Here is the input.
Amino acid sequence: MRIDRARVVERLRTLVDVESPSESADAVNAAMDVVAAWATEFGGRVVRHAQTGFGNVMEVWFGPADSDLKPVLLLGHLDTVWPLGTLAGMPFRQGTDEAGRMRLCGPGVMDMKAGVVMALEAVAAAGELRRPVVLLLNPDEEVGSPVSRAHTERLARGAEAVFVLEPAQGLPGSVDDAAYKTARKGVGQYRVEVTGVASHSGVDFLAGHSAVLELGRMLGKIAAMTDLSRGLTVNPGVIGGGTRSNVVAAQAWAEVDVRIATAADAAVVDAAMQGLQCEDAGCAVKVTGGVNRPPMERSAGTVRLFERARRLASFELKEASTGGGSDGNFTAALGVPTLDGMGAVGEGAHAAHESLLLEELVPRTELLAGMLREMCG
Here is the structure.
C-alpha cells in the first residue's frame, strides 16, 4: 500500500478539527473515537481504558493476536495544550511560508496529531505483520502523564522496541536538521514554600521575619545548582509572596523547573532541593515535588534502532538530543530501545505558529513503514 498524501492531509484535517485539550475528557475521547474508527478499517483491535478525570488510554493492536514475538510499541498522545474554542481563531489551514514550502497549520497539527495519522498510515503500508504492533495513545501527556504512565510502562516492558511519534527535532537545514531523537532530558518540578512571621513594616518591623527575603536568598542557591557541563539546568520560573508593601511577608513561594541529562543527577538535585534551609531562624521552608520524567539516555539499543532507520531512509537522517521530555522517557528508563522524534517535521509546538512541512509527511511516513516492515514483516 502506497502512502496517499491527500488522504494523510484529509485525515489530519479531520483530527485537528476535533479539539482535544488535556483537561476535557469528552473532547479527548471524541478524538480517540475518530482514530479508533480509522484503525478498525484495516483490522486494528481497540482496547480502551477509562480514566478518572481524563480521556481514555487507548491501545490499538495490529498483526497476529497469538504471536510469541514481542510487539513493537508505537507511542503517542491525542491531548493538546490548546483550549476548546482555539479553532475559531487558529483554524486548520494550508499555506506557503517565506521559503516557498507548503505548510499545514493548526492547533495540535504537529504536536502530535500528525504523528498519530502517520502511525496508522505506516502500519497499513507495512503489509502483513509477523510481529504484533501496538499503537498506544495517551490522553494526558501534555500535563505529565499522571494516569497513562502505568499503561505506557506496562506495554513497554513486553515490547521489542518503542517508536515515539513526537515531532522530529528542528527544521531541515537547521542545526538539528529535522533529526530523530536518541536522547531527552529528564524533567523535574519542585515547589519551594517559605513561611515567616508577619508584622507591620513601620510600627513593628523587628518583630517580623520576611518569607520574601528568605526566599530571595534561596533563589540564588537554587540557580547555582545549574551545571551546564553536565546538562543540568535548574530554573526558578515562577515566584510569589507577601500581601502588601507595608507588611513583612509571612508567605513566599517559587516553582522550579529541573532538567537532567542522566539518571544519576536526579538524586543529586533532589538531595540539594530537599536540603534547602533558612538562614533566618524565624522562617521555615517546605519543598515538594521531584523528578517526574526520568531522562532518556542514549543507549546502545536506541543507537541500533537509529542506525537501522538511517539505512532505510530515502533522505539524510540525523540524530539529536533535546531538553524536552516525552512519554518515551518512561520507556527508555526501563531499558527498552526507544527511538523518538519519528513524527512530523515542523515548528511552533505550543505556539500560535504551530505548523509542519507538507513535503516531509510522506517520506517520514514511508520510513516508519519501512522500519515496521523490516522488524515486523
